[in-house]
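=== RUN LOG ===
request id: a7f3
mode: sequence -> structure
chains: 1
length: 320
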Amino acid sequence: MPARTDYCAWRGGALVATDVKSAAKRIVLTRAAGQNESLRAELTKILGNSARIIELPCVEFREPDETAALDGAIRSIGDFAWILFTSQNAVRYFARRMRALGIDPAQRAKNARIGAIGPATAEATAAEGFAVDFVPSPGTGRTFAGCFKDSIRSVAGMEVKNPTASFLRDVAGMKILIPRSDLALRDRGATDWTEALSEAGANVTTVSAYKTCAPKALAGPPLAEIMRDGADCFVFASPSAFENFARAAGADNLRRIAGESAFAAIGPTTAAAIRKAGLPCEIESPSPHARRLAEAIAAHLKNPRHGTIGATSRQGAKPI
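=== RESULT ===
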């Protein structure tokens, strides 16, 4: 007996009948391999068998081709008052390079304090052996800029608005190291807060700890399958992931997919990259918290006509 087909969906540009038992929502996660676990777990918790989670890594990370600046910063790590990590990858690749040079992160110079932007970065920082001294309450470089500038103003005799940022006293002349991706300058949020440091008189050194690349396998069979079968939602965590996907899919396929699927962005910078390409970004998470993003995706898939959802963070939400 043929399968019952009373569920219809857009697939590959056409309305097709689908077995009611296989009518699960197809959600494509595009972060690098091994970095989707939190979001996958939250989506599975909320949607259960009604979702099919597909991983299509659209970025991968590698050691930088040129390490002279990075090595110089590591060898002179004792000269820095602060090291600020902006991502889990920055921490991991920085620590990996330290070990390659024979320097144990756990035995770093005692006068270099550590800041991490976002709880997930703080967790990765601690896992690499660093003692974390400062984690701003906002979860992104863009929102940290405002927090930082408020703190800069408040230490000049006024009330400190962010008590955790009390280290900003005497920031003038302070040597601060910021390891990051080779593409970090494209994120105006990151640029804004590093500029705020410099404008406040800090001596800021930025080095590329890793590079962001498009996976060679991106244009292979998994992408072809998604192009053929379609998906209900694509989740992008960085402008690089979206741009690599767009190039691999091609302009015509990208426009078709955007018309059939919802695009979700982790962070305002990624959402801006999607919209800059002339495409809608229906789900935008200003903070990288898996639970709130999963809830927003589930709500949109249940009622896709209610427009853009802001997946704001809340206390207790797990960072992606």
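=== NOTES ===
Residues 1-22, 152-165, 311-319 have pLDDT under 50 and may be disordered.
The chain has two domains: 7-59+215-310, 62-212.
=== END ===
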